[in-house]
Structure formats: C-alpha cells, structure tokens
Amino acid sequence: MTYCTQSRPLSNFGTGVPGGGRVRRALAAILFVVVGLMAAQGAEAQEAPPYTVVGTTDLAAKGFDDQTLARLMLGRARRVAGQRIAVVMLSYETPAIEAFLKQVVEMEPRRYEAYWRKRLFSSRGTPPRVVNTVKEALSIVARTPGTIAIIPAATPLPDGLHAVAHAAVAAPPPAPPAPVTAPTPIPTAPVVAPMTAPVAPVVAPTTAPVAPVPPTVPAPTGG
Amino acid sequence: MRRGYVKALLFAAIYLPNSALALDWDSISLNGYTSFEFESQLTDDGNGDPNHSFDADLIDLVFNFQITDRTRAAADMTWEHGAASEDGRGNVALEYAFVEYTVSDLFRLQVGKMFIPFGVFNEVHTAKPAFLAVKEAAATNKPSRLVDGARRFFPRWGVGINIRGDAPVGDSSFDYDLMITNGEQEETNPYEEDNNGAKSVTGRMRFYLADVVRLGVSFNYDKPQFDGIERQTAIGLEVNIRAKNFELLLEGAYGEFGFIKSELAEDDPDKQRQMGGLAQLSYGFDTGTTPYVQLQTVDPNIDVDEDEGYSVITGVNQTFDALMFKLEHNYVVGNDKSSLAAFSGSRFHEIKAAVVLGF
Fold first, then answer.
1. How far is C-alpha A155 from the geometric centre of its chain's CA atoms?
2. Interchain pair A71, B168: CB under 8 A
3. B130 and A CB contact within 8 Å
C-alpha cells in the first residue's frame, strides 16, 4: 500500500495582507510540523521490524493466527490441524524476533527466556530452536516437515516455502490534510516550502515478497 | 521361496539399522545447568554454615529426544556436591526419565520416573536458573530445613503413569497433571516396587488468565505405611501475578499425616497437621537485575502453639550473558517451642551466594 502526500507551493500565499509574511511563515511552520509528524510516523512504520512466519506449502494448516502462534511459542500447543509443529527462529535479540515476541507472545525476550528456563527444566518440553542465520532457518524448514520459521519480513523465500502468518499491518498514517487553498494568489518571488522532502511514499511494513495468507485459520487440534 | 527369504534377510540387514527410529541431531536437544554456591552464617549459632563454605552444588544435564512426531523421551541426570562414589561423597541422581506419547495437546501420556507435579518448586527444585533465590522454597518443599519436626508434604519423585495436557479457554488457558505412582517408602526401592498395594495419586491444575495471573491447585494422596505414617494428604495453592515488571508469587501447602494406630501409645495424637507458606515479591529491571524479598513460614504442627519457624530472604539476582548471579541474606527466626529456640534469640543470619549457568 502506498501513501502519497502532495503539497502545493506556498509561494504566493498570504502576501497581500498586512503581516502576510508572518502568517505565511506561521502556516509554513505549522505545515512543517504536521508534515514532519506524518513523515516521522511513516518512518516509524517503516523502521518497525516486521516478521513473517514461513512454512512449507504442504503444511496441514494453511495459516496460523496469533493465538495459535503464541501457544506454539509457549509450548502449550504442539499440534495444529493434526500435525506436530516445530518452530525455528533467530536469536531473541533479533529485531524481528523481538517484535514477534512482544506482539504475538506478549513477552519481552528476557521474560520469554525465563519462562522457558522453568518449562525446560521441569520436563515440559523444549523451547523453539534458535539458529544463527535466516538461511539456516529456511533450510531447516525446507527439509523438516511440520516446521515453521519466524524470519524478517523482507526475506526472499525459496521455492516451496510460503508465508503462513504476517505481522499485523501497522495502521497507515493519517490522511494528509486537505490542500490549503490560497485565498489570494499573488505572484511573488517563489518561497520554497520547507517540507517537501520527507513526504516520500510511506510503505506499509508488510511488503515481504510472500504469498498472501489464506483466510482460513484452523484452531489447534489434537491429531 | 528360499530366494524370497534371502532377499528379505538382505533387506533387513541393509535397511533396519537405518530405520526411522535412528535419530538425527535435529531431534535431540541437550540442555543443563550448573550452580556454584557459597554460604556463610553470620551469627555464632544456627542451622547455617559457620565455616563459610564453597559448594560445587551441582551439574545437571537434561536430554530430550523427539523419537517420532508423537513420542518423546526425556531424562535429567544430576551430579551434586562434587559426586565421588568411591569416597561416598555427594549425590548422583536420575531426576527423571520418562517416555511421553502425545495423543493431543490435551492428552499426553507419560510413563517412567517423574517429578511429583505439586506446587511451584518441586519440578525445578535443583534448577537454579529457574527461580530467584539460592535455594528452592523450604516452606513448601523441604520444611524440615526451616524447622525441625516438619515433614515433606509430598515426595520428590514417583514412578508410574502421568497424564498431562494443555488447552486454551478463550484468551486464557489451563494445564493439568494427573499421576499415579508407587508410594514413597524406604522398605523397598519405590522406583522398582511398591511396599503395599495402595498407590500414590497426585494432581495439579493451573489456570493462566491472559498470562498475567496464574492460579494453581495441587493435591497428593498416599498410604506409605512406613515411618509410622498410615496415610498422608497434601493440598497446595499457588498464585502468580505479573504487573509490568513486578511479580508476586504466593504458595501455600497443607498436609495431614495419619499415624499407624497400632504403633501409637494411648495418649498419642493420631495425626499431625502441618502448614507451609511462601510469599515472594520481585521487580525485574530491564538490565537483568531482579531484587526480591521472600517470606516463608512453616507450622509443623497446627495443634501445637508457638512451634512455627519463619524466614525472611532479601536478595538480588543478576543475569549476565548465560550466567546468573545470586546474593541474598537469610534471616531465620522461630517461636519459643520451635527447634529454632535452641539458638540465641531463636534466630540466626546467613549470607548465601551462587553463580549459576543455564544452557
């Protein structure tokens, strides 16, 4: 999804009234702030480290909702649609994994680690496997039936793998303000609007080159 | 026909050694932990360590083998206090070794030697990376460590069958254990044979309310017919609440021990009722520093007044890389009729520290 903000030149705005220069500068400043905030929000959305959950195309479950993913990550579910699911991921400090843990599991990495220390040492299973590289994660998924991996969203996927869940799409930035109509166009020397640069198209964070997730999300069931 | 047999034998010889049950490394995980500890009693008398001792507390290895999609084998082996069997020093133990078959997430069947699933600490009682203090909570797990005359509410281990499961309920979830094992006793090896026909039954159910609140209830029932005990019953409650970086843990246990009547004198009571409790408040900073305060109490006999023992533990736990450092002060005090009354002021102070590695 692409958002485009257009601005119109302020060169001939407000110069025909007493104090028009101050008004123009004030409006320019306001617009500067507004557009700056919009750009910052857009930039924030861009900088957010989104994740993608990938699996092989022959997984029994074609998609995973957040609750199912959270239960898999916490070891409280091991089977989905009758198939045992194992999870592979990068280290907890990886921005995409940290974002995933906070958004889906609702735990900080440190707390998640502590959670698994208790669970692992009390014989309740093993935590998701942590690997060093995306390549390694994708390799494991490709060769191990029933394995899914959590990876950064921008990762190109090899044949045979597809996305089974995405990060929730960040809310788009608010619509740009309606174009300000100049009340009295008076030809003057052009005044360069200060904020034309940061309004580059804002791209929603989930633009990974992956297949769309089918809408059907089966609840975890025993096999 | 004969040629068919030869073919079959050849097939078996070639392929069976590489059958599906051979595990690759992706199916095996090896984890564990170690703990090196130091204890120093600050007062002249007490139950602590007056000699400021170092303790190679343990090294513990945890194995998990995912044999098939549904079958897992798990084992935990520990070497404690620098185990050296030739010198009769330390302790070597198989903490658990079981096979688990998963029918569904709600129904997993386990057979083997397992921790008794009671309360918060028993299943992690040696796993120092899994809790904040240097030692597991004595009040609910080893109450005689706090005050003499108290009994264990439940045994550490059992050999038998366990059913375990997890299930979601809306935004919340629950898990449960239901275990039947040989009862605890010392007449025979209870991990090999029982000394009577009665079996020990343990159950626990925990509710996770949006992962912020955990509520749990446990019970254990046994007829040991050993050490003067005809039957024993224990009930435990646990509450764990998280609010941002704060965590509050509350645990209580009640035990009732019925004595073998034929072994009692005329005026002896026919049972002992016991209580233990724990409250722990901690705050986890993002830096990995977690200060905590823990209050424990044991009443070894509810029907006897002034025999209670208490401890107040204040400490700090710092994680660094894979390491965990623990430093705490233990203040232990008892009422007039408790065993702690033998010490000056019925109390003592002790410093405990540990360097723990989990992997």
1. 13
2. yes
3. yes
